[in-house]
Amino acid sequence: MEQDYLKKGKLEETARQLEQQIEQEPDNPVLYINYGNLISAVHEHEKAIAFFEKALQLDPEAGTAWYSMGIALYELERFPEAAHCFMQALQKGVQEGDVHFMLGMCYVQKNEQIRALPHFLRATELDSNDVESLFQYGLCLAQMEQVREAVDVFQKVTSKDQKHADAFYNLGIGYVYFDKPEEALEAFNQALLIQPDHYLAANGKKNAESMLN
User: Which residues belong to any copy of the Tetratricopeptide repeat protein 21A/21B second ARM domain (predicted)?
Assistant: First the structure.
């Protein structure tokens, strides 16, 4: 029922319904998680955290509460705390690609790419269509100066998602690194075709053209 309301955008009705259910079942942690997710969806992250904490008081093993609290903390840019929550979610059995992806993003925000790598990789193992995890995996490799491996990954991303402008841009950067201006120019042009206002790709295109002249 709550999901139907959410799909229709009837947030107020959903909130009232959940509040009534919480009054009837004050010891049901799922209701606090649902309410927290609802108000987190409208960017009331601080308030949402209080509901996730209440759910965890009732059930410390509620992995979904840990995950949802991690999302709220991430949105508040409290990355170390968010990473702790995602780790707890994994330990409590929420072995889903999204958890690994978000944990990887926390490490990226902390400039700990080497710790992010295995989580992005695991996310792609759990979902072969998870292009964003694959892209972030490539970015980490590039930032760790494993450029050849990164180029291979960006090629995979662009083959899976031919509208991924950032992947084409990074692929172009890789080609420049290996002194392949023609391939680089093609990649930058593709990025600009997808996203004409891609400033970095436009700059990369100029550099590739100067290499050819």
Answer: 23-180
